[in-house]
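Figure 6 in text form: structure in, sequence out.
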């Protein structure tokens, strides 16, 4: 069962309707504005915690700590996570480099479309 604990959350603005994207990965698209992550190489800033329904609305983004996350494939506890093209968490490909695009670590196993627990800490994992 997915769990989360209060972590470091930032109030950001959304660039489009993300009402159906709670617990998806997001990236910066402009100053203090987030969009759905869409590639493993994206610099993911965190996980969307709420359901902002229109462009320009406030969004709460978990940038550090335990969070619920939507899985984009099969994930094992301990896997390093990155984003797929739909903003869902997937296992980082071995060919991507040691730490390239990692947003966090899976705390529990999941399969596609599950909501699972991950430790989010993108700032320490970015880079080659």
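Output sequence:
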């Amino acid at each position: 069962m997915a769990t989360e604990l209060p972590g470091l959350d930032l109030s950001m603005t959304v660039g489009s309707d993300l009402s159906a994207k709670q617990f998806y990965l997001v990236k910066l698209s402009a100053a203090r504005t987030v969009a759905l992550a869409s590639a493993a190489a994206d610099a993911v800033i965190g996980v969307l915690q709420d359901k902002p329904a229109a462009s320009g609305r406030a969004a709460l983004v978990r940038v550090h700590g335990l969070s619920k996350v939507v899985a984009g494939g099969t994930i094992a506890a301990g896997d390093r996570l990155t984003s797929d093209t739909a903003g869902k968490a997937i296992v980082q490909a071995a060919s991507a480099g040691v730490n390239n695009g990692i947003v966090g670590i899976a705390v529990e196993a999941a399969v596609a479309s599950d909501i699972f627990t991950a430790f989010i800490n993108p700032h320490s994992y970015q880079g080659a």
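Caption detail: The first strand starts at residue 8 and ends at 14.
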